[in-house]
Amino acid sequence: MIETKQLELQKDLTLNIDSLAGMVVELQHKSGEIPWHKDGKTDPWDLVESAMGLNIGGFFKESEKAFLWLAKNQNPDGSWFSSYINGIPQDRTTETHMAAYIATGLFQTWLIRWRENDDTSFLKKMWITLKKAVDFAISLQTERGEIYWAKSPEGNVDQMALLTGSSSIYMSLKCAISIAHILGINMPCWERAFDKLGRTIREEIHIYNISKSRFSMYWFYPILSGALTGEAAFNRVEKYWKKYVVDGQGVRCVSDRPWITMAETSEFVIALAAMGNTKLARILFSWIQERTYDDGTFWCGYTFPDMVIWPQEKISWTNAVVLMAADALYGLTPASNLFSHESWDRFKFKGLEGAICVK
Question: Is this model's pTM higher than 0.85 or not?
Answer without folding.
Answer: yes
